[in-house]
Amino acid sequence: MLKVTDLKAGYGGSEVLHSLSLYVENGETVVVLGPNGHGKTTLLRAISGLIRPTAGTVEFEDQVISGRRASEIVAAGVIHIPQGDLPFPELTVLENLLMGAYRPEAWKERKQKLEQVFELFPVLGERTDQLARSLSGGERRMLALGRGLMSKAKILMIDEPSLGLAPFLIDDVYQTIRDIKETGLSILLADENADHLEDLADRVYLLEAGTLVKEGKVDEMLQDEALLAAYLG
Hints:
This protein is of the alpha/beta class. About 35% of the residues lie in helices and about 25% in strands. The protein has a six-stranded mixed sheet with strand order 6-7-8-3-9-10, sandwiched between helices. The model has no long low-confidence stretch (mean pLDDT about 90).
C-alpha cells in the first residue's frame, strides 16, 4: 500500500533522513520507533508532502506521491495526524470534525463517518457543541484522530500519540488506536515509547539518527532487551 524507497529529506540543506526505506501493507499497523530528534516527524512530513524529499520516492497504492502537493496526498487517502493535534481552538468539536471532511468525496459521507467517530470516541459525541480549546489533552488527541477518520482515510500516520499526556490518559489513547486498527485501516505510527506496542503493531522499525537500523515483528523486537536499551535507553 505505502512504499518508501531510499528517501532523503531535511531542512535548510541539512539532511535528516538518509536513504530510508520502509513499507506498510494494506490493513497493517507499522511503528517507527526511536528517540526524540532522530527523524520520525521528518519522515511523516516527507510522506504527507509538508516537506519535499531531496531524493527517493514515496508510492501509495502503486502511484508515486512524492513531490505532489499536500492537498493531493490527502485526496489520495494519506492522512497525517501531527504532534500536538492542532485543533481549531475556537471551533466546536463538531465543527473540527467536519473540517476533516472538507473534500467533496468525504463530505458526501460525513454522516456515516460521524457515526463511526462517535462510536469509537463516545466522549466526542457528548461534547459536540464544546469549543476545542476547552477539551482535555486526551480529548484533543481523540478529536485529532476523529478528524483524520472523517477524511476517508486509507492510511493514518500518527505522530507521537502519547506526547504530553498524563500517564492515566495514555492507555486510553492507545486503546482507541487499537480500535481503529480493528476497522481494517492501515496505520503508520511514529513513537519513542515501546510500552504500548504489544497487540498493536504488526511490525516495528528502529530509527536512529535518520537511518533505519532494524526491522522485525513486534514480539521479536520487544523481547530483545539489549536492542531496546541501545536505541531507546
